[in-house]
Specification:
The complex is a heterodimer of chains A (370) and B (595).
Chain A (H helix, E strand, L loop, with lengths): L4 H26 L5 E5 L6 E4 L4 E4 L3 E5 L6 H19 L4 E2 H8 L14 H15 L8 E2 L5 E3 L2 E5 L2 E4 L8 E2 L9 E6 L3 E5 L2 H9 L2 H5 L1 E5 L6 H14 L3 E4 L4 H12 L17 E4 L4 H4 L8 E2 L2 H11 L7 H13 L1 E2 L12 H12 L6
Parallel strand pairs in A: 5-6, 12-13, 12-14, 14-15
Antiparallel strand pairs in A: 1-4, 2-3, 7-10, 7-13, 8-9, 8-11, 16-17
Chain B lengths: L12 H10 L4 H10 L2 H7 L9 H22 L5 E10 L2 E8 L6 H8 L21 H13 L3 E6 L6 E8 L4 E9 L6 E9 L10 H11 L4 E5 L5 E4 L22 H9 L6 H8 L5 H10 L13 H13 L15 H11 L4 E6 L3 E3 L3 E11 L5 E5 L5 E4 L1 E6 L2 E3 L7 H8 L15 E9 L16 H53 L3 H30 L3 H27 L2 H9 L1
Parallel strand pairs in B: 1-7, 14-16
Antiparallel strand pairs in B: 1-2, 2-6, 3-4, 3-6, 4-5, 7-8, 9-11, 10-11, 11-16, 12-13, 14-15
The chains are: A alpha/beta (370), B alpha+beta (595).
Chain lengths: 370, 595
């Protein structure tokens, strides 16, 4: 992997920060104090919506993880292990997946039958703790989540040594890498008027097959469900660097709408890096439950809300960033009608209804939810 | 046979009520009935009344009578008892019971008296601590064998003088006299007694109320005895002797005036050798001084210099009424012989095999003003303590609490719920001692009540009546023992917890040391050693903190007593409340509720 000097400088800085974790702990050990690792709390209680940046941000509450605490000891050990392993990865100039890291660290503790990590679910949050406490992006730690998003459009870019033309990716599209930082991905040509962020893979394929991006001069992108960091960062860069509006198309249910909110202002668990991931200018194109009447969508393709949906809807209704009146109306309507709607349900009105009528109409009339 | 009145031996409650309702027979009257009707007839008619209510219980009662006789005989002759009990199944509900001891043996003359004559040797109101007969006595067993099987009881006995003899014994139901047949000399030397008797209508099962459990408990309460049991299946179970000293024989004590009833006084007077009532009182009762004699003389309507044998029922009643008014010194308590703390401990260790034991023998005390008594409590926890409960869904058997009740070392296996010991156990807030669910714990409670006169709830002699003073002593003993053992268990548990913590911290220290060494380019060994030192320091600090809390949390004897008083007060209030409610006086009720 080719690196520029600037890139190496960043790595050196990260390594220094990781080594500092070690020397801080060593200082405590030598002073015969309880070794403690302090990190920001990453729960709803320590998260706020920053009106100015339009993203979710982490508050300044911290918690201590102590070695000499029965409830913390194992996690403390895991934290130091993860820090040490990440440093090794960066020194080797490699990038590994968080699953790789889990396997690299998993071993049986000497003289016991206990493993350092039993499942990836143990190492992932520790990685996030380190990211949050060092105020670093996962990518800066040379860690990648498995990529799953795809993109297509009239865009040319450089990925490392390779030149990629996103208009020539065929039916499969281009797979979005996990690290899309400017050092890795450099845009060469962007010929588009907006970006359409689609929740579902199957729906993205309809748009690609119909050559929607060519006809409407746009970029189509999907995160295949809850989008990863790569897709979100890429959407943000296109929005910021090329001033392209970002429209989000999801199911009309609490889960789809939450995906929109993550794209727009970020998630609670990654709140420490949302300024680098969220796109506050994103707009919600649909679906909404209001569309049912407006587009005369037959009742039989709607789905009744279940108890879990209602619970999630109520939770979301309390989030600070869902307090705009349009969203209150939509939530109220969803609850009142007690229905939800999948993107695929629009096929009832014709296979190309979504690409030829629904989305173009909405964009033309600028019918968005904020 | 002592203070027991055979008029009301071991009866089911109904039988007792029926009997009381009828007349309330005295011993003499019963004896008279024996003579007038056939003894066998009486037996058949009164099986229930004689404690022969259940097939299992009857067998346990028989074993009790023989084993008690053997233990008493051995102790009296200063022999360490070695007793073997064997049960053989001869047919449906048909068993042969063999009890062999190494006691002093019986002579041809005493065999008949001991085993072949109902009511023989009954002394009236003997104030001595003894195991006591629970039902029909050994002669009763002979009679029972005879009327259920028609067979004689076989006895082999050797006294060490001359050849041992073997004989077949029956009782003549008309005359209540022993009849011996096939009296033979036995060639082989033998010291002791073997009794072999057959019974029908009895049944052996392995339950908590069966002979095996009876013998197990007898062995626990008599650590100087070795008891062997051969069950009908042929399996041999040996309860080994754990203490080689024969207990001191309890001293016979004069009755204390506060515990005497009119009929007892009247009977004692009738058999008195004294010439005057005054000297009869002074010489027959404990703590009876000249001052008391003067008081009585002043306050009764008759001349206390009269012949005690001439004392009428009404006069006896006057005397007993005066006893109630006079202050006597509390009775002597030196006649009580407890089993002893080390002995109980050894016994429990050997037979129950628990992890922890705590034993407390309380100082003697007095109930109803006239009866000395003493309480001994042993608590065994963990290991094989407790009894097996039901099997859980996971197929694991949960151990449950086992309460072993004893009166003068004799196990009480029946009427559990009505017994003061059970009530005392239930009344204690075991949670205070760290026992969250004491009923489902591997817990054996050993409680022995010693007294010259055990206050049984009924003639069945299986439950102790909840006299205030007895309840108090039982509770204090249980609390004291409980506090000791559970504090100790808590200490052990903390030690184990501390060790587990140390191991856990050490385990992670190794990994932390490796990672910190890598991050800092320092030596792993040095970091690990420092972490270990840190762990030890931390645990020590924690321990000191706990100790300080413990010092505050632990209850002293005083606190236990205080807690007891508080509880008694609360109970009294509750009782008052109940009483008030019963009375239906609304105002009182409201007042009580406001409390």
């Amino acid at each position: 992997m080719a690196k520029e000097g600037k890139h190496y400088a960043k790595d050196t800085e990260v390594i220094k920060k990781l080594e500092n974790i070690g020397s801080e702990i060593l200082k405590q050990i030598e002073g015969q104090k309880n070794p403690t690792y302090t990190m920001p709390i990453r729960t709803l209680g320590n998260v706020f919506f920053d009106q100015k940046s339009g993203t979710i941000k982490l508050g300044n509450k911290t918690s201590d993880r102590q070695f000499l605490n029965v409830a913390h000891s194992r996690k403390f050990m895991q934290t130091v292990l993860v820090a040490s392993e990440i440093r090794k990865v960066i020194e080797q100039r490699a990038t590994v997946s968080i699953r790789d890291l889990y396997y690299a660290l998993k071993h049986t503790i000497e003289g016991t039958q206990e493993n350092t990590f039993e499942e990836q679910g143990e190492s992932d949050p520790v990685i996030e703790d380190i990211e949050a406490s060092l105020d670093l992006l996962r990518e800066e730690l040379h860690l990648a989540a498995s990529s799953k998003g795809i993109i297509a459009g009239d865009v040319q870019l450089r990925d490392g040594d390779d030149s990629i033309d996103l208009a020539k990716m065929g039916s499969g599209g281009w797979s979005v890498p996990s690290n899309v930082e400017p050092e890795n991905i450099e845009f060469k040509k962007v010929n588009a008027e907006y970006v359409l962020f689609i929740e579902k893979d199957a729906v993205w394929r309809r748009f690609n097959e119909d050559q929607y991006w060519k006809k409407h001069k746009c970029i189509i992108l999907t995160g295949r469900g809850q989008p990863g960091r790569g897709e979100r960062r890429l959407a943000q860069r296109l929005n910021k660097e090329y001033d392209l509006p970002l429209y989000v198309l999801t199911d009309a249910d609490p889960w789809g709408m939450y995906i929109y909110s993550v794209i727009k202002q970020g998630s609670i668990s990654l709140s420490y890096s949302e300024e680098k991931l969220a796109t506050p200018k994103a707009q919600f194109l649909g679906l909404t439950t209001m569309d049912v009447e407006k587009f005369k969508i037959p009742k039989e393709v709607t789905i009744r809300l279940n108890a879990l949906d209602v619970k999630r809807l109520n939770e979301m209704g309390s989030y600070e960033w869902f307090q705009k009146k349009e969203w209150k109306q939509e939530f109220a309507n969803m609850k009142e009608k007690a229905v939800k709607l999948e993107l695929e349900a629009l096929s009832k009105k014709g296979i190309r209804f979504i690409t030829e009528e629904y989305v173009p109409d909405k964009i033309k009339n600028e019918e968005f939810l904020p | 046979m002592a203070d027991e009145k055979i008029a009301k031996p071991k009866a089911s409650e109904e039988a007792e009520k029926e009997e009381k309702g009828a007349k309330g027979l005295t011993a003499e009257e019963i004896a008279k009935e024996f003579r007038e009707h056939s003894v066998a007839e009486f037996f058949k008619k009164n099986m229930q009344m004689l404690g022969l209510t259940g097939k299992i219980k009857t067998l346990t009662t028989i074993v009790h009578e023989y084993v008690t006789n053997s233990l008493d005989a051995c102790e009296e002759s200063k022999i360490l008892p070695d007793i073997e009990v064997q049960l053989k199944e001869l047919g449906d509900e048909y068993y042969e019971v063999t009890v062999k001891d190494n006691g002093p043996g019986l002579t041809k003359e005493t065999v008949g008296k001991a085993l072949g004559k109902l009511l023989a040797g009954t002394k009236f109101h003997r104030m001595v601590q003894m195991r006591g007969q629970q039902g029909i006595g050994a002669a009763g067993c002979t009679m029972l064998s005879q009327i259920t099987t028609g067979k004689a009881v076989q006895v082999i006995t050797g006294t060490g003088k001359g050849k041992p003899i073997s004989l077949d014994l029956t009782i003549d139901p008309k005359t209540n006299e022993p009849k011996m047949a096939n009296v033979q000399e036995v060639a082989k030397d033998f010291n002791g007694t073997i009794i072999r008797a057959k019974f029908k209508g009895v049944k052996y099962v392995n339950s908590e109320q069966a002979p095996l459990e009876y013998l197990r408990r007898t062995a626990i309460a008599n650590p100087h005895a070795q008891i062997t049991f051969i069950e009908p299946g042929g399996e041999k179970i040996v309860f080994k002797r754990t203490y080689r000293e024969i207990p001191v024989r309890p001293i016979e004590m004069k009755p204390h005036p506060k515990g005497v009833k009119v009929d007892e006084l009247s009977t004692l007077a009738k058999y008195s050798g004294e010439r005057k009532v005054s000297s009869f009182l002074k010489n027959n009762f404990d703590r009876f001084g000249d001052k008391a004699v003067e008081d009585i003389a002043k306050n009764v309507s008759f001349d206390i210099n009269k012949d005690p044998r001439q004392l009428t029922w009404e006069e006896a009643e006057e005397v007993v009424n005066q006893f109630k008014k006079i202050t006597f010194i509390a009775p002597r308590t030196d006649g009580l012989i407890p089993i002893g703390e080390p002995q109980i401990r050894k016994s429990l260790e050997s037979i129950v095999k628990p992890e922890f034991i705590s034993v407390v023998t309380r100082k003697p005390s007095v109930y109803s003003g006239g009866f000395p008594f003493q309480v001994e409590v042993g608590i065994a926890y963990g290991g094989n303590a407790g009894r097996m409960g039901e099997t859980s869904e996971e197929g694991q058997q949960q151990r449950k609490i086992e309460i072993m009740r004893f009166a003068n070392r004799a196990p009480l296996l029946f009427d559990t719920g009505g017994c003061a010991i059970t009530k005392a156990v239930q009344s204690i807030d075991w949670k205070r001692y760290g026992m969250k669910d004491y009923e489902n714990a591997p817990l054996t409670l050993f409680v022995n009540l010693i007294s010259v006169h055990i206050p049984y709830t009924s003639a069945g002699k299986q439950a102790i009546s909840d006299e205030d003073e007895i309840m108090e002593e039982l509770r204090l003993a249980l609390m004291d023992t409980g506090r000791k053992i559970f504090t100790f268990i808590g200490f052990q548990r903390r030690l184990a917890e501390k060790e587990a913590k140390r191991k856990m911290f050490y385990k992670y220290a190794t990994e932390v040391a490796i990672a910190v060494a890598e991050l800092t380019h320092k030596g792993k060994k040095d970091i690990e050693e420092k972490l270990h030192a840190l762990v030890l320091k931390h645990l020590k600090l924690e321990e000191q903190k706990e100790k300080r809390q413990d010092a505050k949390g632990e209850m002293s004897e005083e606190e236990i007593e205080k807690e007891y008083e508080k509880r008694m007060e609360r109970e009294k209030k509750e009782n008052d409340k109940k009483a008030a409610k019963k009375g239906g006086k609304k105002a009182v009720e409201e007042a009580a509720e406001e409390e």
